[in-house]
Design goal:
The complex is a heterodimer of chains A (114) and B (108). With 114 residues, chain A is mainly β. Helix content of chain A is 0%, strand content 53%.
């Protein structure tokens, strides 16, 4: 059974550009969550999607957005990139009946903004 | 959302020693996990343990849900155990929240 797949693994962007990251969950999993990890702030929750609906959103500016498709794959987009957006972005998938199931993480996308 | 506090923040051990990592939650959680982050950044699942005790080789974990804490035990530590250990919990209708992690260094 394939794990959670995130693409691309590494990305270098220029300040002001936008970026789209992709996450394919484990087959059969309907919930996808996104997290940002930086040395200063640790692991912070971005958003959570379940059955194509955003169920929860963290405390990030509107430049951060996401969506989920009917096959449960999810994308997140960051517009007008800032240097502070440089981080490891992790996504997690879970079966999610009532949020009481184990979450599994992908390898992450390491974004560098220059 | 809930607050998650991990202790100690840093731990240095000699190979072969045992250790205990702790995770405290500000509120009740019904979904608790322990992870080990590998050098490439991926979070590796160690335990899904909303309550009770589980063991997997040299690692074991105990969650006392009524007292809002969880413990991760590492016995006979090896250099390959080095890295950052995270606990994360989810309350009712909440997203998963992570602690700041415990950085474990095992010296040969």
């Amino acid at each position: 059974k394939a794990g959670v797949t995130q693409t691309p693994r590494y990305l270098i962007k220029t300040r002001g550009q936008q970026v789209t990251l992709s996450c394919s969950p484990i087959s059969g999993h309907r919930s996808v969550s996104w997290y940002q990890q930086t040395p200063g702030q640790g692991l912070q929750f971005l958003f959570e999607y379940f059955s194509e609906t955003q169920r929860n959103k963290g405390n990030f500016p509107g430049r951060f957005s996401g969506r989920q498709f009917s096959n449960s794959r999810s994308e997140m987009n960051v517009s007008t990139l800032e240097l502070g957006d440089s981080a490891l972005y992790l996504c997690a998938s879970s079966l999610d009946p009532g949020r009481k199931t184990e979450a599994f993480f992908g390898q992450g996308t390491r974004l560098t903004v220059v | 959302g809930i607050q998650v506090e991990q202790s100690p923040p840093d731990l240095i051990l000699q190979e072969g020693a045992n250790s205990t990592l702790r995770c405290n939650f500000s509120d009740s959680v019904n979904n608790l996990q322990w992870f080990h982050q590998n050098p490439w950044g991926q979070l590796i699942n160690l335990f899904y343990i909303p309550s009770g005790t589980k063991q997997n080789g040299r690692l074991s974990a105990t969650t006392v849900a009524t007292e809002r804490y969880s413990l991760l035990y590492i016995s006979s530590s090896q250099t390959t155990d080095s890295g950052v250990y995270f606990c994360a919990g989810r309350g009712n209708n909440n997203d998963m929240r992570f602690g700041a992690g415990t950085r474990l260094t095992v010296k040969p």
